[in-house]
Amino acid sequence: MLIISTFAVATLLIGTAITPIVNAQLQTLGVPALVKTTNTTAAANTTAIQSQISGLQKQLYNAQHADQIKQQAIEAKLLPPIKQSDNAKHCAIDQQTPTTFKTYLTHFACGHVSVLPNGTALRKFTLIADDYNGTGKPIEISTNTPGLGKPLTSSNQTYKPVIFHAWTFNGTVPGPTMRFTQGDHVQITVKVTNDSKFPHSLHMHSMHPGAMDGMSGAAGMIEPGGSLTYDFIAQPAGVYPYHCHMAPVEEHISRGLYGMMIIDPKTPRPQATEMVMMLNSYTYSFQGVNGSGHLIQTLPATMQEIQKNLSAVEFNSDEGNGPDNQFYSVNGMPFGYVGTDSVHLTTGTPYRIYLANMVEFDPVNSFHMHGNMFNYRPSGTLNSSKIYTDIVTLGQGDRGMLEFHYNFPGQFMFHAHINHFSDLGWIGFFLVDNKPGPFFNNG
Length: 443
Ligand SMILES: [Cu+2]
Hints:
alpha+beta; 3 domains; six-stranded mixed beta sheet; five-stranded mixed beta sheet; binds copper (II) ion
């Protein structure tokens, strides 16, 4: 641009035969030709020349950056409503911020969003898969566990933390909740750390090409130190789990490599306070094998240590479906939402829970809400018929969406209606405050 401008100045000053050459160059860029000034005084001449140069520079810039300017215009028009919609969902950009069971409940990540030339939203995410050299990262899973975690009362209960060595997406169990809108172009870059011992992958439920399916081999296996971008169009609207699909899959899942994915419909669902509840479990059957990656069907050598630490927790033998789970939870923390950590609600407020079951080794889990009824949409898809109930049963990988209001204030338990699971951590409480308003039958 500088060369042409200088050239233009020289041409104007000289006013000779160079002008056609410059004009030819400008024409190829779609910029109007130079006009020879007719002013007589030197000052007027200079001003006119500067004005022309300034105008030409602007036109030249626009010609050279036409695509960029068009893109900026598209983003200026389409990005604000997308960001407004993300804000309305309380959707963070960054899915790297670690969550706890308290923040995971309402933490959604919508990714880094931009708009493609065709007007489609592009959302980019990064997931770091890490097995910590196969041995896992120590996470505490006993915050409120009676007799083990922090005392719920001022009784003489002692604090004995229970540690689980987890394999993680972005450092937490469960991994971040990723959220898109149907039709969005999504790019999820999964990096497996150098520190990892095993290959991992991202297998998402929902619809996508085979190469994006996150299975062994060419369809998405990522070696330690490697990365892969899963590139797809989000469809259809619904609630989905994602997880690593490397063999043995039950080990890669039960060690912690899973999370939830929500695809919103293009027409937003009715306004509601939204929560995520990921049902999961912990087994210590893999913790004694130093990340060998092989299933063992009996409880490991660390059982003595577990029994010592978990003396207050009931152990039940399983139904012969592989290793037993020693803990069950919502959002990664057994006995998490109890006492002062109960979930606070108010009467008359619309709520929506995105629910998924990633419990391994037990074929069935369930969700029961006390003192209320809710509308349940299996898989959360738009054409799934809703069920009006207070309990839903979920198989492995199953999920859905609950919508409800509370009419009465009070303390209400939510838990698995499998008491064995409740005894081992899968319980929580809603503390519902009274906010006068109309009565909702939810149905
Ligand atoms: Cu894996």
